[in-house]
From TrEMBL, chains A, B:
Organism: Alteromonas lipolytica
Localization (cell): Endoplasmic reticulum; Golgi apparatus; Lysosome; Secreted
Keyword Nucleotidyltransferase: no
Any Gene Ontology CC annotation: lysosome
Keywords: Carboxypeptidase, Endoplasmic reticulum, Glycoprotein, Golgi apparatus, Hydrolase, Lysosome, Metal-binding, Metalloprotease, Protease, Secreted, Signal, Zinc, Zymogen
Pfam families: Peptidase_M28 (PF04389)
A molecular function (GO) term: metal ion binding
Lineage, top ranks: Bacteria, Pseudomonadati, Pseudomonadota, Gammaproteobacteria, Alteromonadales
Quaternary data: Homodimer. The monomeric form is inactive while the homodimer is active.
Residues covered by the Peptidase M28 domain: 265-450
Signal peptide (from-to): 1-21
Protein name per the record: Carboxypeptidase Q
Keyword Membrane: no
Biological processes annotated in GO: proteolysis
Length: 468, 468
């Protein structure tokens, strides 16, 4: 009933009717052309999303939880959303664990001394004011480390040399990141003094990749650091020779401090004209690592979803449903902000109709995978057909649960669209000093912003219940 | 007379006769095929030159004048040349000025604070134990800085934003490097407190490019630093806004210390069998900057010329002339080692018959430009014809004076071959932390080593006087 009503209303006021089970395909497509084409034409010419990334990276920069940049970013986002014409803008505060990077020096001390470029993993403890120096034990990957005999790493530094693979969908990350997350505790269980790994990254820059790690309960906490890929090569070239290789590490990374800091999700809404209680979510995360300026991760996402909200807020027609743009806090340290969001919005979760996140950088979208109810698929196919000339194919599967932060909303029942961009270069910059504005593809971000704006409009006005 | 004799000798023992003005082209080409093809087949299969770079970068690493690595490199090179079968190996010591980099921090302090990635230019003074903080004055290039009114930079930090162009022959370097060399004194003459510039480099990495600068006599010495390209972008984006931008710099770079350190050219010879007093030189430089491991600049050169010497030393036939491989010291800080070489070898300079340097990194050789006497050109054309199937064209000009160190030998009268490799990526890594082994193109170095070995053999056995 509700859907029928929305359909009638939408038709009455000339809204797009993509996805309605209309018998008159031609008439329906005419409506698409009128509204979606108007969005497409306007957005695809605009540099707004790039300008937003420029503003964020220039006026704020890095914004790791617990740093001044994180608070600056909150203020920046509120002001930006207001200036972009959102109907409502607010923040939702919660608490996250504080971790501090401090300084770090790493070197090979024998047989051939070299200073190394390394970076502490997020959450790592330091070396307690001392320098740890020990022989390196090499492991090809996490599994090999886990299979090392008990006690075999006593007095040694464990090194995992697994090299991340480059793939368009970034699935090399999943194969590599396990060592980062649980490698330190795996090494500590065998007696290691410290855990060193090849950066989880596809570049060849003398820049380390950070990222979150976790200590297993009851296992000794040892320092965890990543070498830049060229430094990992150097270490491995040395290990291939006969002599033992000794490694020296000094870091005052804080480890778990037990302290918490206030974080804030920043939320902006374009209120729906027909069913404002029904929410379409567009997500990105506002925090970044402290290295780089977080242009790629996730400045681009912020640019895309704020721009999409802006365009829809400024259309003559109002969206039927509410479009809610959420900049989630503390994504990098474990999806903290979105969990708080779900807890706070439990009551309205059933009215979260559909969501999409942008947290995968630069490339052009090549695929849309839905995660919707079967009755909604016809409409999704119509929308995908509309996107097809922009190079977007519809995945054969319908299993999307939401990307990054949105995965937590997916667990909470929100249907999702996963847009897959070409991620070939994403892990060149991910979590590094190299994540800066110049890496943003100014053509691709226009196309992707256009698609997200089309998505938001479609989702808000299709009248489809994406859960059914 | 001498040349005729060599010709006859060469013919008698089956040496290649490339370049002899033989009326029987076919017979001559048969000789080419036999000896040069043998070299080509052997060398093009071998990884020796890459293995040498691997050894140097792993066992020595960076080797800036005045650092322990420089002395390590001397010992490494002597041992390597001996193990490679050179007939004679020796060092020639001299003195070079000591400069020490120290530490550096740079940041934008207003209107939006950012830590910056910057690097002191070679030779720069420091900030005398204090932090220099001042408003930034922007200049598009060195010329604009030089045209600033007298006194207009009083109390300011001068910034030159010129962005190096990428070209296959690297000529963008010449257009950009002037600011690096004389920008500090140009800024000081207008009253500036410090000189900051966009790195001379074509990359977009968060890594600064160092390189030598010079202070003008009688002008106040002010600190000179280069920003990484992304940091230069950030600074310029901020300068485009309305508010004044203030910059903070702290460096304890030593400036000219007045102290000298011992440097050493390392020289290895394959002694000529017919006219050993006639010398063919193959050059590269043994020093590097302290950042990176000097794989590209000039580890590749060292790998190529040592491998070329090795192959010829191990041929059944001995070269007619002597092949002298010279690893010049202190190239980076102003061609110091080669000047000492010329001074020490003044007497035998007239018997330096032809030379070639490798100091341009990675790319495949696409061109040969000679700088020889007109009578030698026919022979050079024949040799170039032999190389043509390997993708090497002969330049229309005959004005080569020698590259890098060899330019000083060129000034001293030595004829030269300038081999031009594709240098499109050279300035991505030049003088940076990113100059590491993984950047070495393992296919290209085989081809280039083959060409240099062919060159050495040809030059040593052609019998041509390249000065005539």
């Amino acid at each position: 009933m509700k859907n029928k009503l929305v359909t009638l209303l939408a038709a009455a006021i000339g809204l797009t009717a993509v996805g309605l089970a209309s018998p008159d395909l031609k008439a329906r497509q005419t409506v698409q052309t009128e509204v979606l084409d108007e969005i497409k034409q306007q957005v695809s010419q605009s540099t707004l999303s790039y300008d937003i990334v420029e503003s964020l990276t220039t006026e704020v920069g890095p914004r790791m939880v617990g740093t001044p940049g994180a608070d600056l970013a909150t203020g920046w986002a509120v002001a930006k959303m207001k200036s972009l014409g959102f109907d409502k803008v607010w923040t939702e505060e919660s608490q996250a664990q504080l971790w501090q990077r401090g300084d770090l020096t790493a070197s090979i001390t024998a047989p051939y001394p070299h200073k190394l470029v390394a970076i502490a993993l997020g959450g790592s403890v330091g070396t307690a004011g001392k320098t740890v120096e020990a022989e390196v034990a090499y492991f090809a990957d996490l599994k090999a480390l886990q299979e090392a005999p008990e006690g075999s790493l006593q007095g040694k530094i464990a090194y995992v040399g697994y090299r991340m693979e480059r793939h368009i969908d970034g699935h090399g990350y999943g194969k590599a990141v396990g060592a980062r997350v649980i490698g330190a505790s795996a090494a500590a269980q065998k007696g290691a003094l410290a855990f060193v790994m090849r950066s989880v990254g596809t570049d060849t820059d003398r820049i380390g990749h950070t990222g979150m790690m976790r200590y297993e309960e009851g296992v000794k906490k040892i320092p965890a650091v990543a070498l830049s890929n060229p430094d990992a090569d150097l270490l491995e070239n040395m290990l291939r020779r006969d002599a033992p290789v000794t490694f020296s590490l000094n870091t005052n990374a804080s480890g778990p401090t037990g302290k918490t800091v206030t974080i804030a999700n920043v939320i902006g809404e374009v209120t729906g004209a027909q069913t404002p209680q029904e929410v379409i979510t567009l997500g990105a995360h506002i925090d970044s690592w402290d290295v780089g300026t977080g242009a790629i991760d996730d400045g681009i996402g912020i640019g895309i979803v704020l721009a999409a909200g802006h365009y829809i807020a400024n259309m003559k027609q109002r969206p039927a449903r509410t479009i809610r743009v959420i900049l989630f806090a503390a994504e990098e340290i474990g999806l903290v902000g979105v969990r708080d969001y779900v807890a706070k919005h439990q009551d309205e979760m059933p009215r979260h109709m559909l969501g999409a996140e942008w947290d995968f950088g630069n490339g052009r979208i090549y695929q849309l995978e839905p995660g919707v109810g079967p009755a909604a698929l016809n409409s999704v196919r119509d929308f995908a057909n509309y996107l097809a000339p922009m190079g977007v194919s519809l995945a054969e599967t319908n299993t999307a649960k939401g990307q990054s932060d949105m995965s937590v909303l997916g667990e909470a029942g929100q249907p999702a669209f996963n847009f897959a961009p070409d991620g070939l270069d994403y892990f060149d910059y991910h979590h590094t000093e190299n994540d800066t504005l110049d890496k943003v593809d100014q053509d691709a971000i226009k196309v992707n912003t256009t698609i997200y704006t089309l998505f938001a409009w479609y989702a808000a006005n299709s009248g489809v219940d994406f859960r059914l």
